[in-house]
Amino acid sequence: MNINGLIINTLKPTGVPVSLRTYTGNEPQYITFFMEDYPELTADDEEEITGYFVQIEVFSKTNYTNLVNTVKDLMIQAGFNRINFRDDPYSSEIGMFHKVMTFSFSAHV
Q1: Cα dihedral sign for 45, 50, 53, 57?
Q2: pTM over cut 0.70
């Protein structure tokens, strides 16, 4: 399974750039993400189901409430499970607000 492609396609309707790990553009809002995977279920020493923890990071120069709600809804509709959301302090270095959203996902191998 191409989990990176699934995340990018899931978040396309937001209309903001979505990038794996880093973003180098100049848009006032963007999303980055990364994930880690682990064997969620094994049988006869073979991985049957892979689990994923996905961290979505929303960056915005303005209020990001609507974007965060859209990301949450899209991820849940795509089968991801909400784990944890947190607001990071406003970053004066980059002049942006930052929301961290963690989801889980499971896929058969």
Answers
A1: positive
A2: yes
